[in-house]
UniProtKB/TrEMBL annotation:
DNA-binding region positions on the chain: 132-211
OmpR/PhoB-type domain span: 132-211
PROSITE patterns per UniProt: OMPR_PHOB (PS51755), RESPONSE_REGULATORY (PS50110)
Lineage top rank: taxon: Bacteria
Cellular component terms per the entry's GO annotation: cytosol; protein-DNA complex
One Pfam short name: Trans_reg_C
SUPFAM superfamilies: CheY-like (SSF52172)
Organism: Candidatus Mediterraneibacter stercorigallinarum
Upper classification of the organism: Bacteria, Bacillati, Bacillota, Clostridia, Lachnospirales
Residue ranges of domain Response regulatory in the record: 10-124
Function, in words: May play the central regulatory role in sporulation. It may be an element of the effector pathway responsible for the activation of sporulation genes in response to nutritional stress. Spo0A may act in concert with spo0H (a sigma factor) to control the expression of some genes that are critical to the sporulation process.
Name by which UniProt lists this protein: Stage 0 sporulation protein A homolog
């Protein structure tokens, strides 16, 4: 559940090289992240940080209309989101300056995409793992901590079985989940004979989350 929840976090990528933005975006999407916005200038990044309200920002230092250090300080005036610097400036003085400003991490180009994904994941877990998991869908919101679905302002409680089934589906988002796997999630080991009951629960779940 935590992994799926964190993959819903908004990530802002700031770099003046479109190829790098496209590459990082592709790797993030392949890893399951769904909300990604890119910016090629400090002005675009500042606007996105204010209006889109990302949960994490990856900043280049060298930008056509300024530098990432100054951009970081401007962003910090109105939000405390975690920031990772990703830049070709790898001198010790630059690293110390970036981390000294309060950045959460500092990576130097060229970089390993898998390492970047790992560092982003570590930062997100550190910042957001204590939040109550909420999953937003089209027209509804699932609050697992409260065991309810909120749809059109109406709070619809989830039964224990509905909660287990939805949790299993969210944990395996993007993957095929079998009937046996869902039955095991809801009824434990030896879940044979619960197929019809599972279908009934899924029907009620759909009524709660769909328009």
């Amino acid at each position: 559940m935590e992994q799926y929840y964190l993959k819903q976090k908004k990530i802002l990528l700031v770099d003046d090289e479109k190829e790098i933005l496209a590459m990082i975006t592709d790797f993030l999407r392949e890893d399951g992240y769904t909300q990604i916005k890119t910016a090629g200038t400090a002005e675009e990044a500042l606007q996105a940080a204010g209006e889109w309200k990302p949960d994490l920002a990856v900043l280049d230092v060298m930008l056509p209309d300024g530098d990432g250090f100054s951009l970081f300080e401007q962003i910090r005036k109105f939000t405390a989101i975690p920031v990772l610097f990703l830049t070709a400036r790898g001198e010790d003085a630059d690293r110390i300056h970036g981390l000294g400003l309060g950045a959460d991490d500092y990576m130097v180009k060229p970089f390993l995409p898998k390492e970047l994904l790992l560092r982003i994941g570590i930062i997100l877990r550190r910042y957001y793992r204590d939040e109550d998991p909420v999953v937003n869908l089209a027209g509804s919101r699932i609050d697992f901590a409260r065991a309810e679905v909120v749809k059109n302002g109406e709070h619809l409680p989830l039964t224990a079985k509905e909660h287990e089934i939805l949790s299993a589906l969210c944990r395996n988002a993007g993957r095929i989940v079998t009937i046996d796997q869902l039955c095991e999630a809801a009824w434990g080991e030896n879940p044979f004979g619960y197929e019809n009951s599972l279908m009934a629960h899924i029907r009620r779940i759909r009524e709660k989350i769909e328009e």
